[in-house]
Design brief:
Blueprint lengths: L2 H12 L4 H11 L7 H9 L16 H12 L3 H11 L2 H13 L10 H13 L5 H14 L3 H11 L9 H11 L4 H11 L2 H10 L19 E4 L2 H8 L2 E6 L3 E8 L2 E6 L10 H10 L4 E11 L2 E2 L2 H9 L4 H7 L1 E12 L2 E2 L5 H11 L8 E3 L2 H13 L4 E6 L9 E8 L5 E11 L8 E10 L2 E8 L5 H11 L3 E5 L2 E4 L4 E5 L2 E4 L7 E4 L2 E5 L11 H12 L10
Parallel strand pairs: 1-11
Antiparallel strand pairs: 2-9, 2-10, 3-4, 3-5, 5-6, 5-7, 7-8, 10-11, 12-13, 12-16, 12-17, 13-14, 15-16, 17-20, 18-19
Bound molecules: adenosine monophosphate (AMP).
The site of adenosine monophosphate has 13 residues, from β1 and β2.
Length: 552
């Protein structure tokens, strides 16, 4: 497939607002792609370049993009920046700039989809001191051969935000439809393989094998997630449940085959080198090949330390030893997904738990079986007394569902409700904060789009504002007056007093009294609150049900 055709498909999809129509269009394209193109197309159409399990990153920021485009159209970086500021969209601006250049250039080489992918692979592979130069060279080559429309989508692909509204769910449905399969089968295979591209290929070549796909060591799967809820609700629905402490640490997934151990963060980045203590604790505790799910917690004098201590260690790449002396991390393992070649995700939690206790000699998180409210209340109080965040209530016969935030796991913790929101823009501050961003525009996700729900400026100390400025200064895509558009890459946890409907923001909602709590460094933007769950919280609030309050 020519890249131009891919760009035309994107343009067409951008003009369609109905999800079903979009699914139909994409499903019509998939069968005519060859085996090499199919997985690439499937990832590209979601705005992704590599499989979700892959640690590879393009590492292209807005500045590199400006420089590459400036070189190709023969202008200055500032001109490109201004064009992007004027449109508020890197894709449209690049398209416009390339259109002007097209009138004067004679020769371009057709780009095809596979070639673009290979070039992006080269970009990701560029490492070391000269990496920026190498990435720039590849980007120049691509833009140099791109027609204006191709430029629009190349720019957006490099920023990994295609803005056409094809989210993972829609692409999954398109794959099922294209190859006439049950969508649950596709979803299940996707959960285990963590790459819709490869799932699409299997769906065409060998659909029967989709039902028995396995989790592969060293290809991390997405973490199973929890919804806020109450113990009473879970007891009412299930009779008996498993209750565990909710540790205030950072999630990890541990993979071990023989002597090789690797640890992945919640964002599925490899963090083995930062966490040698967790790796050795777990390697010593089992001789089996395993994939384990757990929480890394920081401990001092037997009491848990707050999350910030843990995340500092996850980030740490240098002087890990001296940091280890200061902050000791210990694993609390609560699930097992793989044992000696066998995938366990479809076994019920109760069975996985028994296996976990058999194969892991230490570090298994405590679990209590509870069938009455008084018992649950006692564990909840105990959890808080021990310094934990609250409890997790899990359904005993539930499978492990990677990436799903369902009601099979429910988190119960006291205190104010918070939302995890994507930061998509900012506004320059005033007075002594004039050289920093003073407020931040926040968004929920909906089918691959990010829709604003409000701004936050309260709750941020001057010191944090300075840190946030360093975090965001290279992520500015466009400027307009005092406002900037940011590459969406950071998640804020934000408190609020109420969710309101509002015509002022694209999401249709606004937050009353938003308050900054912290940067969720462990979360990526695709883990931000969804529009659907925001609407659900709004509904619960209207019905007077607090959703994460004390166990009733
Ligand atoms: P939240 O980040 O508020 O959505 O809460 C879910 C997170 O709690 C998980 O992603 C884990 O990192 C963490 N957690 C702590 N203890 C447990 C536990 N026993 N079971 C599952 N998750 C836990």
């Amino acid at each position: 497939m020519q890249f131009l055709e891919f760009a035309r498909i994107c343009e067409q999809l951008e003009g369609i607002s109905g999800r079903l129509d979009m699914i139909e269009q994409v499903s019509a394209v998939l069968p005519r792609l060859d085996d090499e193109e199919l997985p690439i197309f499937v990832r590209f159409i979601m705005g992704r370049v590599f499989p979700d399990w892959s640690p590879r990153k393009l590492g292209v920021g807005p500045n590199l993009l400006y420089d590459a485009v400036a070189y190709v159209v023969g202008t200055k970086r500032e001109t490109v920046r201004e064009a992007i500021n004027a449109t508020g969209d890197a894709g449209i601006a690049v398209e416009g700039l390339l259109a002007k250049k097209e009138q004067t250039s004679f020769f371009i080489q057709e780009l095809d989809l596979i070639e673009v992918y290979r070039e992006l692979e080269r970009m990701a592979a560029a490492g070391g001191q000269r990496s920026q130069r190498e990435k720039l060279r590849v980007a120049q080559g691509l833009f140099g051969n791109a027609r204006p429309l191709e430029g629009r989508y190349l720019a957006r692909l490099m920023l990994e935000e295609l803005r056409i509204g094809m989210g993972e769910g829609s692409v999954r449905d398109a794959v099922a439809r294209a190859f006439d399969l049950d969508v649950r089968l596709v979803e299940h295979a996707h959960q285990a393989m963590n790459d819709l591209g490869e799932v699409a290929l299997l769906a065409r070549r060998d659909p029967a094998s989709l039902s028995c796909v396995t989790i592969e060591p060293f290809r991390p799967v997405k973490m199973m997630l929890a919804q806020a809820g109450t113990v009473a609700g879970q007891l009412g629905d299930h009779g008996e449940v498993a209750v565990e402490y909710k540790y205030d640490g950072s999630r990890f997934q541990f993979h071990k085959v023989g002597d090789i151990c690797r640890i992945y963060s919640r964002r599925l980045e490899e963090v083995t080198e930062s966490l040698p203590d967790i790796a050795s604790h777990l390697a010593e505790a089992t001789g089996h090949d395993v994939i384990l799910d757990g929480e890394a917690v920081a401990v001092r004098d037997g009491r848990p330390m707050p999350f910030q201590y843990v995340i500092r260690r996850f980030r740490r790449k240098h002087q890990v030893d001296s940091m280890m002396e200061k902050i000791e991390l210990v694993p609390r393992v609560f699930d097992i997904l793989y044992l000696d070649g066998e995938t366990l995700m479809d076994r019920p939690l109760s069975e996985r738990r028994t296996i976990l206790e058999e194969v892991l000699g230490a570090h298994v998180a405590e679990q209590f079986r509870v069938d009455n409210a008084a018992g649950a209340e006692a564990i909840y109080t105990e959890a808080l007394n021990l310094g934990h965040e609250g409890v997790m209530v899990k359904v005993l016969d539930s499978p492990y569902t990677p990436g799903v935030r369902g009601r099979l796991w429910v988190k119960v913790k006291p205190g104010v409700e918070t939302l995890d929101l994507a930061v998509v823009g900012a506004e320059w501050g005033e007075g002594r904060r004039a050289k920093m961003f003073g407020s931040f525009l926040l968004a929920v996700q909906d089918q691959g789009r990010l829709l604003p729900v409000g701004k936050v400026a309260t709750g941020i100390t001057d010191e944090t504002l300075a840190d946030l400025y360093s975090l965001f200064k290279d992520k500015v895509i466009a400027r307009s007056g005092k406002e900037v558009t940011l590459e969406p890459d950071v998640v804020f946890e934000v408190g609020y007093s109420e969710i309101q409907t509002s015509p002022n923001y694209e999401s249709g909602y606004a937050l009353r009294f938003p308050r900054f709590v912290q940067v969720r460094e462990d979360k990526s933007v695709d883990e931000a609150e969804t529009l659907d769950s925001l609407a659900e919280r709004y509904g619960q609030q209207k019905n007077g049900q607090g959703s994460g309050s004390l166990p009733a």
